[in-house]
Amino acid sequence: MTSPIPSELVDTLRSANRVVVLTGAGVSAESGVPTFRDAQTGLWSQYSPEELATPRAFRQNPKLVWEWYQWRRELVSKAKPNPAHYALVEMQELFPEFTLITQNVDGLHRLPGSNIIIELHGNIHRTKCFQEGTIVESWKDTGDVPPKCPDCGGWLRPDVVWFEEPLPEAELESAMKASRKADVFFSIGTSGLVYPAASLPHEALNHNATLVEINPAPTPLTPKADFMLKGPAGVILPELVK
Ligand code: BJW
């Protein structure tokens, strides 16, 4: 069961100028991309993301971590945007200022045409040198797993943000600024457990934004939300832009 869109929210959105949306893994769930805190399927069910998405895990077992990302990269490459991604493209046309901030690394927002995207946790399709941090576009297939950096011979890794690593400074700064100026802030498909991304709705609230959450399950943010639209993003967001 999904909740109907409350008329007070429709009125609030009609007069909103600055709208900020923060998305998490739940927005890609209906595209078949598993979320982080749900049980992982298949080959990787024995590991939790917290055990694999850290620099320590990569140092200890680079082959395992590289192969985990390789598996996810293939899964994501086959995934298609779902109605939530399309509705967010429509939302960007509806408001004078619209900022889409995502924690997702799958790049699915870009495919249907969302264009003002802040990617807080990087992008799984990019690769960088573990040693020097430089982005690497291509490398020789020498059979090494992970492959070696063509410049320094160090390991290559995905250009994503692991636990204990800082978020990209410019992206975090832009996300903070937009959140502080938001009239309406949407938190969609995120458990709100991972910081500093999880602090963005609180920044918005502290600056008097209306907070809207879209999620089938409650999160630590739910008690603070002005509107909790309970249900899948792929059902609720298309209703919202109708
Ligand atoms: C649906 C749905 C449907 C299902 N529709 N919804 C302050 C307090 C406490 C701890 C910390 C703190 N500050 C920093 C920390 C430590 C740490 C942290 O937050 N730990 C917590 C776990 C406690 N943070 C960090 O380490 C960060 N770095 C940092 O702070 O650095 C500081 C530093 C400064 C200077 C020098 C050095 C360091 C980095 C965090 C990086 C997170 N990276 C990951 C992996 C990315 C790469 C990859 O993809 O492998 O990002 S972890 C993972 O979690 C991924 C996600 O983006 C992120 C958030 O997950 P998300 O999106 O919320 O997914 P789920 O699965 O948790 O939730 C899905 C939700 O969808 C659920 O609610 C479902 O109900 C819902 N849902 N279907 C709508 N159809």
UniProtKB/TrEMBL annotation:
Protein known as: NAD-dependent protein deacylase
Q: Function, please?
A: NAD-dependent lysine deacetylase and desuccinylase that specifically removes acetyl and succinyl groups on target proteins. Modulates the activities of several proteins which are inactive in their acylated form.
Q: Which CDD domains match?
A: SIRT5_Af1_CobB
Tell me which InterPro entries the record gives: DHS-like_NAD/FAD-binding_dom (IPR029035), NAD-dep_sirtuin_deacylases (IPR050134), Sirtuin (IPR003000), Sirtuin_cat_small_dom_sf (IPR026591), Sirtuin_class_III (IPR027546), Ssirtuin_cat_dom (IPR026590)
Q: Where does substrate bind?
A: Y69, R72
Q: State the UniProt keywords alphabetically.
A: Cytoplasm, Metal-binding, NAD, Transferase, Zinc
Residue stretches making up the Deacetylase sirtuin-type domain: 1-242
Source species of the chain: Pedosphaera parvula (strain Ellin514)
Binding positions for NAD(+)?
Q103, N104, V105, D106, G189, T190, S191, N215, P216, A217, A233
Record's Gene3D superfamilies? SIR2/SIRT2 'Small Domain, TPP-binding domain
Q: Say which family it is in.
A: Belongs to the sirtuin family. Class III subfamily.
